[in-house]
Write a structure and sequence with these properties.
This protein is an alpha+beta fold. It has 2 helices and 7 strands, in the order βββαββββα. The chain has a 7-stranded antiparallel beta sheet with strand order 4-3-2-1-7-6-5. β2 and β3 form a beta hairpin. The longest helix has 13 residues. Bound molecules: D-MYO-inositol-1,4,5-triphosphate. The site of D-MYO-inositol-1,4,5-triphosphate (I3P) has 7 residues, from loops.
Length: 109
């Protein structure tokens, strides 16, 4: 699955609150492949190598949990992703349907 997702980092590893200066929203082209959610700068190209920056932004979603971010009301269609190393991301999808689809696919892994 792939599509545009806008990310906000809410908590870093070990669940510590992401410090100010790194809490902004950033738009990515997201690709879910196996157990990894790649958050890429540019649109998905099937045969292109993954850049170092894109690798750094990749999120392992094994044992991660995606839910609807009902406690976040500033933006619509936002899902909350908690990873197994206690990071928390807010991810805004372009529509409710897309948000539900990402939640379903992430939790299926
Ligand atoms: C953050 C940025 C985010 C904002 C966040 C700020 O600043 O303005 O958009 O979240 O507020 O800290 P920076 O880019 O300097 O990290 P919202 O869009 O959700 O308001 P927060 O600290 O209350 O999460």
């Amino acid at each position: 699955k792939h599509g545009v997702l806008t990310r906000k980092s809410h908590a870093d590893m070990d669940g510590k609150r992401t410090p100010r200066g790194r809490r902004g929203w950033k738009k990515f082209y997201a690709v879910l492949k196996g157990m990894i959610l790649y958050l890429q700068k540019d649109e998905y190209k099937p045969d292109a190598d993954i850049s170092e920056v894109d690798l750094k932004n990749a999120v392992r979603i094994h044992h991660a949990l995606a839910t609807c971010a009902t406690d976040y009301s500033k933006r619509a269609n936002v899902l909350k992703l908690k990873t197994s190393d206690w990071r928390v991301f807010l991810l805004q999808a372009p529509s409710e349907e897309e948000m539900m689809s990402w939640i379903f696919r992430i939790n299926l892994v």
